[in-house]
Amino acid sequence: MTRRTAREMAEERLATAERKREAVEARIVRAEAEVRAAKSALVPLLADERYAAAHPLLATLPTDETDEVAE
After folding, report:
1. Any residues with CB less than 8 A from the CB of 70 and at least 6 apart, and which?
2. CA distance 66 to 52
3. What is the pTM of this model?
4. C-alpha dihedral, 58 to 60 to 63 to 69, nearest 10°
5. Would you state the pLDDT for residue 23?
6. Residue 64: its pLDDT value, please?
7. Do the Cβ atoms of 52 and 69 come closer than 8 Å?
């Protein structure tokens, strides 16, 4: 088994650090895509919620009952 030189060890550490950074950057890209997808999925749900909340039958409920229905 040959001994590695200090330069070889430093190059290996640099290569390892670069791989780790690239892996983290890829995780960030995936997380950002997941956030965008979640926000896109939320838009129609919020519209549905506004539509349901504007229903005329809900307008006749007392305020405390409306809060219970929203939960």
Report:
1. 53
2. 12
3. 0.61
4. -30
5. 98
6. 62
7. no
